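#lab-general

N.A. 3:47 PM
ok so I finally got the sequence cleaned up, no stray characters, all 343 residues accounted for. can someone with queue access submit it? mine expired

B.Y. 3:52 PM
send it over

N.A. 3:53 PM
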Amino acid sequence: MLINDIDKTILENFRSGVVIPAMPLVLTEERTFDVETQQELTHYYLDAGVGGLAVGVHTTQFAIRQHGLFEPVLLCVSETIDEWSERSGKKILKVAGVCGRTIQAVKEAKYAKQAGYHAALLSLAAFNGSTTTEIINHCKEIAGIMPVIGFYLQPAVGGMDLSYSFWKEFMQIPNVLGIKIAPFNRYKTIDVVRALCDTDKENDITLYTGNDDNIVLDLLTEYKIQSNGREKKVRIKGGLLGHWCVRTQKAVELLNEIHEIIESGKDIPKELLTRSVEITDSNAAFFDAANGFAGCIPGLHEVLRRQGLLKGIWCLDENEVLSPGQSEEISRVYDAYPHLSEK
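B.Y. 4:20 PM
back already:
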């Protein structure tokens, strides 16, 4: 499957920049897969106006693979999207998280393709300590199965440092659709943008922010990169974010607002810069930044529970719970920024 095999409208929307939430896993209190509520949550995102969904990623809990849930969850969400698309006449990008060393990743990519997914979000966490050549060969293997979205994941949740030279090599792999930049680090974010420009791939590979700590500024910023004898202007077009799996209607409104400001050429409103900090502060509570992101997934579940979308915050690991004081922190940002909440 090649990039050009993706539906034209889906591809154009992705290139323009859309909201792509990272899908949570819905469990019953007995920690079994809650299919019905998973479908309802999927409908919430679709009705909110997202341009894609990412399934089988960190927010879905990597442990679904050890619990035999990788295939059932991917299939459930894919079929729910297809049913919605048939009724609404709208289509979105389906992204599957692909993890592990090459044998596992190939198996996951092949299943994702079979289940109707358009692209693989490629986690490289299993290659920590490997050479650049080993990692690039792995990426080429998966890109030979389906389009790939590169993933710069922050080390705090299992990622690793990836150099500018690595990204230069990665950008030159055929069938790379985009890059999710999520190192939670401005220096490393610029490395990816520079590599994109220096490989002349700025029209072929679309950048998405995964920096949940810097969402608004990532989307507002125009990068001016001196590359190959000329100045290139590049933007991060959309977001593939765990943060956007909560308050998703607000996320769609935010991205539309940012696109309108950019297209108008008007100055950035001061209020939007203030809101940027408020969103980051909220993210710190939801993701449990104070405790090294230990309560990240339960924190997102708690916000979805408060939105009436989940019945509980259960994770596959019964020890994966809110950190001490995290619920109070979530309540604090709710009270401090009521305009960020959905009605």
